[in-house]
Amino acid sequence: MNASLSFSDRLATEIRKKKNAVCVGLDPQWNQLPVVIRRRVQEVGQHPSVAYRRFCFDIIDVVAPLVPIVKPQMAFFEQLGPMGMKALYEVIRYAREKGLLVLLDGKRGDIGSTAEAYAAAYLGAGDASPWGADALTVHPYLGTEGLQPFVDRCLSVQAGIFVLVRTSNPGSAYLQAADSDPISVAQRVADWIETTNQSIDDSGTYGPIGAVVGATYPEELAALRQRMPHAWLLVPGYGAQGGTAADVLPAFDQDGLGAIVNNSRAIIYAYQKRPELSPERWQQAVQDATTQMIGELSPSYRVVEQRR
Amino acid sequence: MNASLSFSDRLATEIRKKKNAVCVGLDPQWNQLPVVIRRRVQEVGQHPSVAYRRFCFDIIDVVAPLVPIVKPQMAFFEQLGPMGMKALYEVIRYAREKGLLVLLDGKRGDIGSTAEAYAAAYLGAGDASPWGADALTVHPYLGTEGLQPFVDRCLSVQAGIFVLVRTSNPGSAYLQAADSDPISVAQRVADWIETTNQSIDDSGTYGPIGAVVGATYPEELAALRQRMPHAWLLVPGYGAQGGTAADVLPAFDQDGLGAIVNNSRAIIYAYQKRPELSPERWQQAVQDATTQMIGELSPSYRVVEQRR
Predict the structure, then answer these.
(1) Which residues of B touch A130 (CB under 8 A)?
(2) Could you say which of B167, B195, B297, B307 is the most buried, measured as most Cβ atoms within 10 Å of its Cβ?
């Protein structure tokens, strides 16, 4: 991957190469792990973080040739203490070695020098930052000056952020759909994203500031897509949370770009719905579920193929 | 400290014992560290996280007899990669060994099993969680169901959270003061906090769900205090950000409880304004600045003394 390209250009390049916009979420949870991985670690008395690393490495081996980007969920690594953080670090490195873009799902958000510290910690692929991620999810609650340090960092190290706008959980309406005068809170955040992307002199269509917009509110998704024509959308809620391929189609532009659709559990724990597979072959279930999702989303990337 | 007490009762006990509600923020930043600490680490070629640990340990040694609680800012430790996280872990342990309550400023926030993972990671003093903190700051943007897993964890391990309501930065108004119908976003979050604390069967006045309300908007601080009579307030913005003792007084109840006032830089980097001190005596500046702030806030805790 050409590190001198903007995050947006790297993402578009990988989507075109892999012919899909699937983001595989890496959400390791001990009780969900394939029994063969848990057993190996328990037998030799290793720390659970060893199992998390093994599990994520094994998934990366399967999905690296198939999808453009993975999204490690930091909370699950943080839950294992300092050893879990070390495993996270290794997972990020491994994913990048295998040619995947890495979007860290850490939902960080603060102001001033603290926001600068978070941005410097995570944003900057490979050796450009201590953790080496291409992009990070970010909370908007502290307002625009809480977001600006992340924007500045995106520009200095060719990274990206995805700001929470309209999340996929049912209770998100409590704040995000609150009708503030004259627009909702989510629209307010969306407008900042659009303005900021437009203000950045960038050759491509999309700027470095993406938006998290859930698949579970298709009408709002379409409206927010129109409201932020220069933002990549990260669309969670596909599969397990009820979002369908038809629901996410409005997130894509006419070239099949502009969005990535995340799926975590239905891919990484697909073995749980495949009792006919022997336990050692759990990776086959990951591969099949990934391929199936790519197929389901083909109405979006088929457009890309026609245009090439 | 009696771990079977609720976080709220532990906090009230420590405030009464120390006769003040000062929270010392632990914000290690390499370029700000006393030169004696930086030099020692550089001379032997150690990782910067060694300096962060040393700096925080030295501050804890000074403030542990003086104040009830410290607030490590996670971002600065995260900025040093996995080694920084190890230092954070050790700082939390050390602070608790010295009898301090630990409020982790991580501003986490997510939904479902991810929120559960963050809560399980950080909430639970000592060995009750992998990181062992008494309390954590939390983002409300994902709505009430994003907060509920943190509440559940507070009840199961006697921990506390402080939800961002009205932060001290000038740009916070963009979202938080947005007039949603019929109340502002900040008021909306405040109402959830109050309702939730009231719904928790607790013997004390204050529940486990606190609120972050900046010192820089004294009128809103007073109004939010009234709106959340059962919530501890964490008041940032004192000192460096312009908040004064008079500004924070409305945060306290008539018994001198109900709030903690944070100060980070003006205490931990106080040596920078004391050129007459020899570099080795930077801890003296920490002690003097802490004592000074305790004195400034005495109009609030003097009430406590009268009532005992």
Answers:
(1) 79-81, 84
(2) B167
Res A302: pLDDT: 61
Q: How many Cβ pairs closer than 8 A exist between chain A and B?
A: 188
Shortest Cα distance, chain A CAs vs residue B255, angstroms:
31
Tell me, rounded to whole angstroms, the distance of Cα A4 from its chain centroid: 21
Concerning whether A86 is annotated as a catalytic residue, the answer is no
How does pLDDT run across B250-284, given as a tens digit for each residue?
999 988 899 999 999 999 999 999 999 999 999 99
Nearest CA distance, B210 vs chain A (angstrom): 17
The ipTM is 0.94
Q: Does the structure show a pLDDT above 80 at A181?
A: no
Alpha carbon of A185: minimum distance to chain B alpha carbons (Å):
7
pLDDT in tens, A69-95: 999 999 999 999 999 999 999 999 999
Assess whether the previous peptide bond of A149 is cis (omega < 30° from 0).
no
SS (H, E, C) B151-188: HHHHHHHCCEEEEEEECCCHHHHHHHCCEECCCEHHHH
Share of chain A above pLDDT 70, in %: 94
Q: Is B118 on the interface with A (CB under 8 A)?
A: yes
Mutant choice from B175, B184, B265 vs A, greatest count of A C-beta within 10 A: B175
Residue B180 and residue A179: Cβ atoms within 8 Å? yes
Q: Which residue of A has its CA nearest to B214?
A: A142
Question: What is the signed CA dihedral for A23, A24, A29, A34, rounded to 10 degrees?
Answer: 170
Q: Which DSSP helix (H) or strand (E) runs through A97?
A: helix A81-97
Average pLDDT (B182-209) is 87
Give tens-digit pLDDT for B31-46.
Answer: 999 999 999 999 999 9
CA distance B77 to B119: 19
Contact B141 A139 (CB under 8 A): yes
The residue whose two tokens read 């309702």 is: B195
Q: What is the pTM of this model?
A: 0.95
> What CA–CA distance (Å, rounded) separates B10 from A297?
53
